[in-house]
Amino acid sequence: MKTIKELNSFDKPREKLKAKGAKALKNEELMAILLGSGIKGKDVRKLSKEITALLDSNFDNISLESLSQIYGLGAAKASQIIAAIELSKRYLIRTNKKILCANDVYEELKSYTRKTQEYFLTITLDGASHIINKRIVFIGTLNQSLVHPREVFADAIADRAAGIIIAHNHPSQTPTPSQADINITNCLKDVANLIGIELLDHIILTKNSYFSFSEEGYL
């Protein structure tokens, strides 16, 4: 594999981007532009290929820690990649995805059904039911004292959201809500009514099914 210096000028990622547009570039070429340079003994093209291979194999679980395992990728550049991925996700989510039913929520958050800990999540929506943002609010066993309304609604207010959906997974794979789940839902419903952001649903996620508080008449 040729290094960047050995490539013809029209084959270099930046020049190719200028001449043909971003869509003409391979994933590793886009990554090379983002990185800017490699390190001694590892050209930016080789480094980019290693990074895109990791993204191809484990994109949903990519993290700063996993990227930092790649030799030659320092904390600063790894942070740039994580930031670029998250920013692109947010814009893609904001412009393309809508939530119209509980099953849409389930499909959106299905990756969390494999978690061995409980994840408490929120999805904020605009008035047309487009997703504004998805967030992890809390990790661990849920109870009413730990899931504080301030943590749930602070970002929804900042998003200027019209509605919010809350969700959490049951590692036991039983979708039936506990009394704590019901208490948390009722508490958050009262707060939502007070601040004017509609609590649209609370979804309990398992690998093979889900429980919707809205569909079951709890909301």
Main features:
five-stranded mixed sheet, 219 residues, 8 helices, 2 domains, Cytidine Deaminase, domain 2, alpha+beta, elongated
Mean pLDDT: 87
Which regions have little confidence, pLDDT < 50, spanning 5+ residues? 6-10
Total count of strands = 5
The name of the CATH topology of the largest domain is Cytidine Deaminase, domain 2
> What CATH architecture of the largest domain would you give?
3-Layer(aba) Sandwich
Q: How many strands, which pairing sense, and closed or not: the largest β-sheet?
A: 5 strands, mixed
What is the highest CATH level, the class of the largest domain? Alpha Beta
Question: Approximately how much beta-strand content do the residues carry?
Answer: 15-25%
Task: Give the CATH H-level superfamily of the largest domain.
Answer: Cytidine Deaminase, domain 2
Kindly state the percentage of residues in helix.
Answer: 40-55%
Q: Using the CA coordinates, give the radius of gyration.
A: 21 Å
Number of domains: 2
Number of helices: 8
Q: Order of SSEs, N→C?
A: HHHHHHEEHEHEE
Q: N-to-C terminal Cα separation, in Å?
A: 59 Å
Largest sheet strand order? 2-1-3-4-5
Judging from the principal axes of the Cα atoms, what is the shape? elongated
By secondary-structure content and strand pairing, the structural class works out as alpha+beta
